[in-house]
Amino acid sequence: DPMAAKSQPSAPQPGSPGRVTNGKAATQGQWGRAWEVDWFSLASVVLLLLFAPFIVYYFIMACDQYSCSLTAPLLDIAAGRASLADIWAKTPPVTTRAALLYTSWVAFQVLLYTMLPDFCHRFLPGYVGGVQEGAVTPAGAVNKYQVNGLQAWLITHLLWFANSHLLSWFSPTIIFDNWIPLLWCANFLGYTVSTFAMIKGYFFPTNAEDCKFTGNFFYNYMMGIEFNPRLGEWFDFKLFFNGRPGIVAWTLINLSFAAKQQELHGQVTNSMVLVNVLQALYVLDFFWNETWYLKTIDICHDHFGWYLGWGDCVWLPYLYTLQGLYLVYHPVQLSTPHAVAVLLLGLLGYYIFRMANHQKDLFRRTDGRCLIWGRKPKAIECVYTSANGQKHRSKLLVSGFWGVARHFNYTGDLMGSLAYCLACGGGHLLPYFYIIYMTILLTHRCLRDEHRCASKYGRDWQRYTAAVPYRLLPGVF
């Protein structure tokens, strides 16, 4: 999911509806977003459309005007010390400089995505890049992708470091210095792309058979109509906005925050270093595994609408980087034991996240003819019927991390997310938004996955849940 998952590459459960067996698509009704909208979904959509942009503004404004306190603006308004008009009047507007900066940034990423075929896979052992095939879509299409995100990330960061240490074309604090004006530019792009994707879905879709319409305008706008909107042969909206420009920017934003901390306080604290290192590890993992990402829920199930378009342009770069922003205003120097504990938690979470996904991928690729934790893996055989009445077989892995809990990759992800927050100490609530948000998001995703699988596998799914009783935390949930 977008607001979300952008950075959370989370694969479908073993043999979930995202998986295609014998080249036949699973029931189309289970694929992607809903065909019909119930009142609860509609209410959620309208609330998100109304409040998500406001939430982003509120967090960024709280840091800019109230030193990252989430309660101070509300208390000021309640006590009559400030009005909404006062707060808005102190908010920096969009500037020509920010607009030029943002336009250049997006144009540069489009150029790296479309014009520079991948060369990293030629010399990096184990890396899979270049032209790759995605999963089969509900209409039976197989899209080709130019996978070159790692290359785009490396070139962008090499230029950033060359500028910082040799060229001095601009200050490394440039992103922080234009943070709120850039927010307006990001919103403009997010809404423009989402609106264009909706119009395109109605009037000139890339593949009409892969479109989903409900009778509701708001739901269509938010959750998307087209499955894989494209311009030309190679410019894929979903892959571009999911992976660039927001995720490439994530590490640059953190570097700019570190540079600002150095400028204001004369040092970069160990907490800022931890946030930069742990989040960079996550971003690099995303790009190293970009080909694998083509087979995940985000690409295999989500249609492209406001949720992905705006979410990737605004929600991800602005709310996933709150720890670094907070540390500019409140530099935290952790004791050595605290810093080591945070680092170990982050690395352990990453290890579980990566190894759980690796075990599932290995099991799938070898059809179970492999070793997991030194033993032959155990699996539950499932049978399901697709829309055309054909029966298919699938296997659900119950060994390794997948025997510990049904979504243990999410557990690793949450441990990593908690580490970023703990690096900021306990002075404010704001840096902890990320772990609260990710817990809600991944729990919801976990329940959504399971609903799909239960309706797909029936009794076989009951056998699987009996074998692996817990979802995320063994003994708890």
UniProtKB/TrEMBL annotation:
Question: What UniProt keywords are attached to this protein's entry?
Answer: Cholesterol biosynthesis, Cholesterol metabolism, Endoplasmic reticulum, Lipid biosynthesis, Lipid metabolism, Membrane, NADP, Oxidoreductase, Steroid biosynthesis, Steroid metabolism, Sterol biosynthesis, Sterol metabolism, Transmembrane, Transmembrane helix
Q: Report how it sits in the membrane.
A: Multi-pass membrane protein
Record field: catalytic activity = 7-dehydrodesmosterol + NADPH + H(+) = desmosterol + NADP(+); 5,6alpha-epoxy-5alpha-cholestan-3beta-ol + H2O = 5alpha-cholestane-3beta,5,6beta-triol; 5,6beta-epoxy-5beta-cholestan-3beta-ol + H2O = 5alpha-cholestane-3beta,5,6beta-triol; cholesterol + NADP(+) = 7-dehydrocholesterol + NADPH + H(+)
Indicate yes or no for the key word Cell membrane.
no
* Signal peptide extent: none
Compartments in which it is found: Endoplasmic reticulum membrane
The pathway this protein participates in, as annotated, is: Steroid biosynthesis; cholesterol biosynthesis
Domain of life per record: Eukaryota
This protein's GO cellular component annotations are: endoplasmic reticulum membrane; nuclear outer membrane
Q: Offer an example of a GO molecular function term for this protein.
A: cholesterol-5,6-oxide hydrolase activity
- Kindly state the subunit structure of this protein: Interacts with DHCR24; this interaction regulates DHCR7 activity. Interacts with TMEM147.
Family per similarity comment: Belongs to the ERG4/ERG24 family.
Instruction: Specify the protein name.
Output: 7-dehydrocholesterol reductase
Q: Which organism is it from?
A: Urocitellus parryii (Arctic ground squirrel)
Q: What gene is behind this protein?
A: DHCR7
